[in-house]
Amino acid sequence: MASKFTKAKSKQAYLKMALYGGTGSGKTLTSLLISEGLAKLCGKRVAYIDTENGSDFYATDVPERLVHPMAFDFDRIQTAQLMDVLEAVETLDTDVYGVVVIDQMTTLWEAARAAYNGKKTVIGGIPIQAWGDIKRPYKRIVSLTRDGNYHSIYLGREGMIIDKDEDGEMEVIGTKMKAEGETAYEPHILGRMKQTMEKDGNYRISVFFEKDRSGVLTGRTFNWPNFDTIKPVVKYLTGVEQNKLGTAEENAEKDVEAQEREAQKVEAERRDMYELIRSAILNAKDESQLKTAWALTNGKKGKLGDLFDQLQTMKDSRKAELREAA
Fold first, then answer.
1. Which of 73, 147, 285, 324 has CA 20 to 30 A from 12's CA?
2. CB contact at 8 A, 180 and 131
3. Where is 261: in which H helix or E strand?
4. What are the distances in angstroms from CA 168 to CA 162, 164, 165, 176?
5. What residues contact 91, with CB distance under 8 A and at least 6 apart?
6. Residues 145-177: pLDDT tens digits?
7. Is 127 helix (H, G, I), strand (E, B) or coil?
């Protein structure tokens, strides 16, 4: 059997990025600045999925805006409905669009939870068996945008990571994107955004890169991030075909199919082995030939399973017939 391993080569064709932070931390602006550069790079347009009407002011000129006072050029869908977003992603024309921004994943995850049984769910009141149905469309959106042949950026609100201290008291031990468990870690770049007020009364926005699988940005902080910030990573993208991983559910379905095919193959081999030994037993002309035929079962009892007992009965019967004939 040929080895499934091949020499490792980069297959990261497109930028896959997640940004999270509190209100006013600059997520929308930064995503548009990066998207603008990516769109120029690939010669296609930006598809912006706006679940909170956060992009409105960026679709018009705002002379007082410190960064990019001119309107951004992008196409947009404004909806907070999970299935609208899923349809938009599933039907995306990749000949036209080279960048997809979802603003925000937090809203979509809330919509997924609220859609259970057609009504808003109570926190902690969702039966464990329902989580598969709740996550399915959301996970599909994540899978399509992560594996799609285009650049994608997820935005999300900041949430707290809470744990018990030594005295059993609850304490905040960190921050995370407020979305389904592993959403923020699906892309290969994850940045936490922050707004800081300066002593002179002005503010600045910054991003701290918690993760970058290329190793270029990890652990670094940048003020007023834009396309130039991520350029060092972009140059390593192949821009050809994105390696597709699929959802856990899709992969499980493929695994089940593969296991069924393997089981059918094993059963066919077992039946062929049985027929071979059966024929040898029935065609044995004397006890010496019968002994040779039975030797075919050596080391195969486990593989033959219940068919081994049938062959043993057949062998004993044939042995009696041969002795009677003699």
1. 73
2. no
3. helix 248-282
4. 12, 5, 5, 22
5. none
6. 999 999 999 999 988 766 666 666 666 556 789
7. coil
Side chain identity at 25, as an amino acid letter? Answer: S
The CA distance from 305 to 81, in Å, is: 54
Amino acid identity for residue 86 in this structure: L
Torsion of CA 156, 158, 164, 167, to 10 degrees: 180
Both structure tokens of 252:
């499980």
How many residues would you count in the chain? 326
- Amino acid of residue 28: T
Task: Please state whether 223 falls in left (phi above 0), alpha (psi between -120 and 50) or beta.
Answer: beta
DSSP secondary structure code for residue 57 in this structure: G
Q: What whole-number distance in Å separates Cα of residue 275 and Cα of residue 277?
A: 6
Q: What is the pTM of this model?
A: 0.70
Quick one: three-class SS letters along 77-95? EECCCHHHHHHHHHCCCCC
* Joined tokens for residue 292: 């040779």
> CB–CB of 203/197 below 8 Å?
yes
Per-residue tokens: 275: 């027929």
Angle (CA) 145-148-154 rounded to 5° is 25
Q: How many other CB atoms are found less than 10 A from the CB of residue 45?
A: 16
Domains belonging to the chain, first-starting first, are 16-245 (3.40.50.300), 252-325 (no CATH)
SS3 for 2?
coil
Query: Is 207 within 8 Å of 193 (Cβ atoms)?
Result: yes
pLDDT at 257 over 90: no
Across the strands, what pairs with 76? 48
Please give the Cα distance from 93 to 74 (Å, whole number).
14
d(CA 38, CA 77): 19
What's the half-sphere exposure (Cβ side, CA atoms, 13 Å) at 68?
21
